[in-house]
Amino acid sequence: MNFDVLIIGGGAAGLSCALVLGSGLSKPCSDGKKVALIAHQRSSHLSSALLNNVLGIPAGTAGKDVLISGSKQLQELYPEVQQLIKEKVQEISFLEGGFKVVTNKNTYTSKNVVLATGYAQPFLIKGLEDYVIPHKKAKPSKDRIQLINVDHLVYPGLYVSGTLAGHRSQYAIACGSGAAVATDILTAWNCGEHTQVHDKMK
Ligand SMILES: Cc1cc2nc3c(=O)[nH]c(=O)nc-3n(C[C@H](O)[C@H](O)[C@H](O)COP(=O)(O)OP(=O)(O)OC[C@H]3O[C@@H](n4cnc5c(N)ncnc54)[C@H](O)[C@@H]3O)c2cc1C
């Protein structure tokens, strides 16, 4: 299967990126674009989080419930974004004008890839070893990692978001980072004209 964007990781950053990109698929600049999310969630740090300090989320919300409701929200509002479940990425290789992504079950190609797999070790995706460095905003004793990037861009067409981009571990930062990457991709599709997606009350 070929995609225009393949987002890897169904945690805070990945789901947020998918929601914003999904909401932008109705824009003329996104006509015919195919987006998918490898919605692996088992190792999301949200699984054990209790959220009390996030704007708009009721205090006491369990992170594991956000994972479920986020995936449902994506499916209900933007079903064009394909959710590929129970797949884990094992390898990424660079092609001319895109990437080959190998999971434990399938092989995909995509013009753009967004990595949102979190900052925990070990980093098991082969092919990106040259971009992995110690995390610059986490305690060294925690042994966290990030990918070398400039404003979320690792390599043309290859983006990173969330804690793996080098952000501190807060839910709102990870979501914002995923949303930022989505608007960068929408802007690129819109020939460089800055693009965001806002819904308005009628
Ligand atoms: C115990 C705990 C409590 C917390 N409490 C708070 C809090 O109160 N407030 C707050 O703001 N933040 C809190 N956080 C932090 C918050 O959960 C993280 O900042 C946030 O989840 C980071 O988002 P992320 O998308 O970078 O990574 P994650 O949410 O960890 O998502 C990474 C995703 O990538 C997937 N993945 C990994 N490897 C692969 C692979 N090879 N292929 C495909 N998918 C893969 C994982 O399954 C996971 O779904 C807490 C975290 C923990 C651990």
UniProtKB/TrEMBL annotation:
InterPro entries, sorted: FAD/NAD-bd_sf, FAD/NAD-binding_dom
**Full protein name:** Pyridine nucleotide-disulphide oxidoreductase
Q: Which residues form the FAD/NAD(P)-binding domain?
A: 3-151
Task: Tell me a Gene Ontology molecular-function term this record carries.
Answer: oxidoreductase activity
